[in-house]
Amino acid sequence: MRRHLVLGMVVAAGVLVMAAGAYRHAQAQQQPQPSAANIEVEKLKDNLFVLRGGGGNTTVFVQANGVTVVDTKNPGWGQPLITKIKELTSKPVTTIVNTHTHGDHVSGNVDFAQNVDVVTHVNTAENMKAMRPVTSIPTPPVNVFAQHGGHGLPKRTFKDTMTLGSGADRLDLHYFGRGHTNGDAWVVFPSLRVLTAGDIFSGKNLPLLDYNNGGSGAEIGDTLMKAYTTVGKQVDSIVTGHSTVMTPTDLREYAEFNRDFLNGVREAKKAGRSVDEIVKTWKTPAKYKGYADPQPMRLQANVENIYKEVR
After folding, report:
1. Hey, what domains does the chain have and what are their CATH numbers?
2. pTM of the model as a whole
């Protein structure tokens, strides 16, 4: 009996390893090769662009004497990103703002010059040093900063707010609380009435809640609503982490979506339902039209972790 039990455990472990390997292989096949040709440009204003491909969305802000870049994509995509920016302007990149710690938003930092100023929230700076695994993602992140002797790590941090530049070149950095991680920065371009949100508002979907890096499903809805009430009236457009450009109305709806998800888990727990029961029965509410179907691993992780957070 014991021999059969051990054999069963070995087989199960093998299946898990094979599944993880298949996942990584599928992910690799889905990703295009790092190349400037594989980066798409959307012009929002004469001096503001969204660059898609190779990871999270990148915002490029062309100022009087240089360029500020918000988020720098996956490992290997920094140089293609630099090449693409040079197609838009001959001005040098002077500043990078990283909205949070994840590798698809920060890894390109290492390909930029040593004199580029890198700015993040104080918690993100600590997270980037560690580059911990991301909750609900089986593939561990590549610590490009360790590989490059710390090059690309933040040089300056902020806690609540920070202003960079002035006049038409100004951008305001805000932190409204935990959500996707514990260091999600919001970047406002006041003269252009545009906001970059990063992955705390990645698109109309169930969010990735990275508890390994301080994320919170119990707090994300309130954080999103605080962003809406604080800077929502200052902007017309919002650059999301991975989706299309959206509006403040979309942001408010997304805050409500996350509050509804939290309340659903809380009420189900009070009623004595298990995590597995919640996961099996949860569906996107009909009022949230156009929202993507939840990824099974993400749904499971979100319910499990919110279940632990709420009473």
Report:
1. 34-248 (3.60.15.10)
2. 0.90
